[in-house]
Design a protein that fits this description.
about 270 residues; alpha/beta; Spore Coat Polysaccharide Biosynthesis Protein SpsA, Chain A; 9-stranded mixed β-sheet
Length: about 270
């Protein structure tokens, strides 16, 4: 049994209905929260069995999801699903993920394989980032940074088997509520972008953060900060806050976590 939450901001309800219909067909879903950060409320979801919460202002991604997550933590709900409105899935995916979590009580977070609409894999399993990982790929030609980017995105793994990953994308996070009670919810200092890095990292300290490629979802992955100057600036500001929290160039925990992840794969090669 799980609750799920989706954060909206100026989304066309017609684009959201297919995802809502898929979620509502899942037997394990107890409550579905729509957290609306838009400037105006809508009545488009009144006919659906969802909990629509109009925030009246843009709280940010993590802060809006926290409204629903805290309700799950206050109840006897084992799991909470955080996902983007631009995701498409089959209800069976959620049944498999819930069963996977039941079979792996040491897991605090699981993410399925995420595909582009054309079926290509999105490389969303990552090491904990350094400033160079983010700056080089934004400002240098891709050919100059390919080797480092592939290492950061763990592409050498093939994305074809279950693996521990310290940074899983916030587009789809199937979370164990007991683990969230230990590590906390999204850090609301991050308005947008690094909140998934921060939460994945805190969960990875206490429990396993797993990629489970036996099921997949589709994600349109708009990458707004690559197209919009305001979002790009917002991305930079919030990443500065993230590195201010965890460390810029001197982050011993990051170095040790990444070293352990890479070493585990080198050992598997022999």
């Amino acid at each position: 049994m799980f609750n799920a939450s989706i954060v909206l901001y100026r989304h066309d309800p017609e684009d959201i209905f297919p995802l809502l219909n898929s979620l509502l067909r899942c037997r394990g879903l107890r409550r579905l929260f729509l957290l609306d950060n838009s400037p105006e409320a809508t009545k488009a979801f009144d006919h659906l069995p969802v909990i629509y919460h109009f925030n009246g202002r843009n709280l940010g991604y993590g802060a809006a999801h926290n409204i629903a997550i805290r309700k799950s933590l206050a109840e006897a709900i084992p799991y909470h699903l955080v996902l983007n409105p631009d995701v498409s899935l089959e209800p069976s995916v959620l049944t498999r993920l819930e069963a996977f979590m039941e079979e792996h009580p040491d897991a605090g977070l699981v993410m399925p394989k995420v595909l582009f609409p054309n079926g290509e894999t999105q490389y969303l399993c990552k090491l904990l980032p350094t400033p160079a990982d983010l700056l080089f790929r934004r400002f240098l030609p891709p050919s100059w940074t390919m080797r480092r980017r592939h290492r950061f995105e763990l592409r050498h793994t093939g994305y074809n088997r279950t693996m521990d990953v310290p940074y899983l994308s916030g587009c789809f996070m199937f979370l164990r509520c007991d683990t969230l009670r230990e590590v906390g919810v999204f850090d609301e200092r991050f308005f947008l972008y690094p909140e998934d890095i921060d939460l994945s990292r805190r969960i990875h300290r206490r429990a396993r953060t797993l990629f489970f490629p036996e099921v997949s979802v589709e994600h349109r992955h708009e990458q707004g900060s690559y197209k919009n100057a305001k979002l790009f600036l917002l991305h930079l500001v919030n990443m500065a806050r993230y590195f201010g929290k965890w460390g810029w160039f001197f982050d011993a925990e990051r170095r040790e976590i990444n070293r352990c992840i890479l070493r585990s794969w080198k050992q598997d090669e022999y």
